[in-house]
Amino acid sequence: MEIVTDGPTLVLSGDFDARSTWEVRNALRERLHGTELDVVVDLTAVTSMDVTATRVLAYASREASLSGNHVTLRGCGPAVRRMLHLSRLMRFVDVERAAASA
Q1: Residue 77 domain-assigned?
Q2: Pick from 3, 8, 27, 28: CA 20 to 30 A from residue 19's CA?
């Protein structure tokens, strides 16, 4: 998992699974408790995601909402969307609806 910070956006690439959740959680926590009010998590280059990753996103979304902020997911491909639906997280997180340009 590679994490690149671009202002309020965290750009993730690679496999978002149990091996990378600690690193992603720390990056999200740092953004949420830093100067950024809202955080965008760009998942365009995420190749796979598991249930532990959905828990990290749920935690970040809840943590942000408790302080009046938002976490928005961007670039959710088919594998990511499938996991968000299976975990029922799709109902509770903000997902950008804009289609990625090809």
Answers
A1: yes
A2: 8
Model pLDDT for residues 6-51, shown as the tens digit of each residue: 888 999 999 999 999 999 999 999 888 876 678 999 999 999 999 9
**78 part of a folded domain:** yes
pTM for the model: 0.88
Number of compact structural domains in the chain: 1
Q: Per the domain annotation, does 100 fall within a domain? A: no
Helix (H) or strand (E) segment spanning residue 4: strand 2-6
Q: From CA 102, how far away is CA 83, in angstroms rounded?
A: 23
Distance CA 101, CA 95 (A): 16
* CA pair distance 94, 17, nearest whole angstrom: 20
Q: What is the DSSP string of 36-96?
A: -SSEEEEEEEEEEE-HHHHHHHHHHHHHHHHTT--EEEE---HHHHHHHHHTTGGGTSEE-
